[in-house]
Amino acid sequence: MKNNIQIEYDYSVAKAFAVVAILFGIIGMTVGVILAFQLAFPQLSNLAGEYGTFSRLRPIHTNGVTFGFTLSGAFAGWYYISQRVLKVSLKESPFLMAIAKMHFVLYFITILLAVITLFMGFTTSKEYAELEWPLDILVVVWWVLWGISIFGLIGIRRERTLYISIWYFIATFISIAMLYLFNNMEVPTALVSGYGSWIHSVSMYSGTNDALVQWWYGHNAVAFVFTVPIIALSYYFLPKESGQNVYSYKLSILSFWGLLFVYLWAGGHHLIYATVPDWMQTMGSVMSVVLILPSWGSAINMLLTMKGEWQQLQTNTLIKFMVLASTFYMLSTIEGPIQAIKSVNAIAHFTDWIPGHVHDGVLGWVVFMIMAALFHMVPRMYKREIYSKSLMDTQFWLQTTGIVLYFTSMWIAGITQGMMWRAYDEYGSLVYSFIDTVTVLHPYYTIRAVGGLLYLIGFFMFSYNIYKTIRCGRVLDKEPVNATPVAA
């Protein structure tokens, strides 16, 4: 009987997060392209004084894309997916609705303040953890609110079985809560000593201990922001858009537990050849290689979901986005473990191959999947047809070209760097000076900047298409359905 209940879902919070995701996506990616052109043409760094320097803009780029765009997309996905798979509406609980709205408001204020304070130069200088202590407290508050939303909706659900996407959202909440609290333990210097800015703080850890905690957090920020919630989106939106059942639910569960156990131990590969104990470096390398198994398990599961329905790639651009995203996930999760092998890391570390690896994962996997999710959600939330499918297709090919230019140029630049830095003559002296490597890499930096610009143009096309869909897309009298129905 419960399947016959007509539930009126409330998408107000999902809509808010979707709009903010696009806003922070524009900010984060625009700053990223500016940085890419600055690296290719250093004179551009002087155009805005101290506010245009790499040190001011880089954390805005990373935080804008990571905690602005990606988390917003994940939260939009949660408030859309959870109601549907749990068969419950936020309208049914005024308390949970209030929690969800508070979650959005505090989140938006925090990210906006993050952009402002980082632009002003307030930073802890810890990667992915640059926000100072007042903002850290805000983050904890709205993260707890999200947790209340998660377990509150689960508690009042009508659907007894928890779909795999819900598992991944729960893992995101619990893991980031643990990681963020431990890594961001800091002491406000003005409150303790009476000197300095009231917003400034120092880490409670020092030296090697600080590095260990930082990269335990830093690598798992990649795991539980760039990976786990995006898998949650893919496990819902790919089957819904394609009309196919998930290929193997058992494989999704095995990959889930494998990913959670292994990922937490892989952060040590950021500290290979550093002052941390050798066994920790080795553990980081080994766990990184083992990480291929659960990562590829998820990616292969997504691709095999399309088994027998590959012709949809010819007609459905959203399927193209999600299939290519899964392919880039496979690429990124084989590339990272290769870089974590000690002999390879000796060449790769500190080179441009590292940002090449990060960006083929983020641009190809994370952003593609979130854009596909938004393209799927918006017509159903606003009851309007996508404004332009041809614009969507053009965007896909433009951004794919941009990604390929980006990561191939950085692969070549990084390996070139690593080999030149290690080149010795018969007397044991370095063959090349540092400026020699900079000169050689200039063409690749230019290609990287052009690739990033193409991708940014594609994101503006995406934003325009979403805007026009909301404002003047053809009104739908019923929800879009898939050409191929999902089997009962």
From TrEMBL:
Cu cation binds at H219, H269, H270. GO terms for cellular component: plasma membrane. Coiled coil: none annotated. Pathway: Energy metabolism; oxidative phosphorylation. InterPro entries: Cyt_c_oxase-like_su1_dom (IPR023616), Cyt_c_oxase-like_su1_sf (IPR036927), Cyt_C_Oxase_1 (IPR000883), Cyt_c_Oxase_su1_BS (IPR023615), Cyt_c_oxidase_cbb3_su1 (IPR004677). It catalyses: 4 Fe(II)-[cytochrome c] + O2 + 8 H(+)(in) = 4 Fe(III)-[cytochrome c] + 2 H2O + 4 H(+)(out). It is found in: Cell membrane. Its main location: membrane. Gene3D superfamilies: Cytochrome c oxidase-like, subunit I domain. PANTHER family: CYTOCHROME C OXIDASE SUBUNIT 1 (PTHR10422), CYTOCHROME C OXIDASE SUBUNIT 1 HOMOLOG, BACTEROID (PTHR10422:SF29). Belongs to the heme-copper respiratory oxidase family. This is cytochrome-c oxidase. It comes from Arcobacter venerupis. The lineage of its organism: Bacteria, Pseudomonadati, Campylobacterota, Epsilonproteobacteria, Campylobacterales.
